[in-house]
Amino acid sequence: MQLRSTSAIRCLERGCPQGSESGPIFWITIINDLLSKLNNLACCEIIAFAGDILVCSQGRDLSATFLHAQEALNLASDWSKGFKLDFNPDKTRVTAIEKRNVFYDAFQLYLDGTPLTMVKQMKYLGVLLDTKFSWKQLLSYISEKCDKLQRGLNWIARNTFGINCNVYSLIYKQGIEPFILYGSRVWGEALKRKKNSKYLRPIQRRILLQVICGYRAISYDSVYAISGFPPIDITILHNIALRENLSASSISNYDCILSPFLSLILQRGMPSILYNLVTRAQKISLLFAILMAVKLMQELVSHLLYSGVVFNPRTFNSEFVMNAQFL
């Protein structure tokens, strides 16, 4: 290690150097041995991200579930001693996912002889997980954080660029909305319940009132209509449905008819009709047609770029038919 004109050499006997370019590779090499052993355990699933390891255990009853989890902890403890590493029991948390109200006083997990703390909610990769997957704590947490984030961004913008409607709109699109949408593919289904959407709509309404320079007495629907932003819960549910349908769709047996009369952000070529190549008479929904066309356009652009052709969306000015099988 070198700091200015002073340098020092020290032999590293355990772990891996942090802050170096080779550190992550060394850590993956070390931890991969543990992950391989944990994956061989029955009824356990291992999720690793950076330096954190999440052990998911399941069973028919709580006693079997805790038994499988304790077996994984014992294996990790024995492995760490061989590599001269120590897992910190104080930073290890246990959360039991159970729909029923169950008392966990009779169950206890240990790591290196130290009892682990049982918690009702746990934050993993920025997402709060509760014992029943109700997501109420997460939605309440997002609402509080959005309030603080909005005040901080408003203060910065006021002292730099000045505050106006365009700045408020930019703050919402670039700051508030991405923060709310983080991890929404995991917890977004909870917004189908109206009692959960009430946590997100008020924070969205407050900043949209600043965007439209409106009074507090304006209704929710009016705020959404004037600002042009849909309710955040509807946006999340729409994104989930869109990605699920797009990932499950296949365009190998479809013809896509692209029409110049439909446009999206000055890019012509949105679908008008989509037919099945097998039946030729089967019409499908407009949403599925849009998904097919988007996927087809992605493959078309990739094909053109791979061929060295300059792609210009504005040159698509005439109606034409494409067969996805030729891409």
TrEMBL record:
<dbReference type="Pfam" id="PF00078">
    <property type="entry name" value="RVT_1"/>
</dbReference>
<dbReference type="InterPro" id="IPR000477">
    <property type="entry name" value="RT_dom"/>
</dbReference>
<protein>
    <recommendedName>
        <fullName>Reverse transcriptase domain-containing protein</fullName>
    </recommendedName>
</protein>
<feature type="domain" description="Reverse transcriptase">
    <location>
        <begin position="1"/>
        <end position="129"/>
    </location>
</feature>
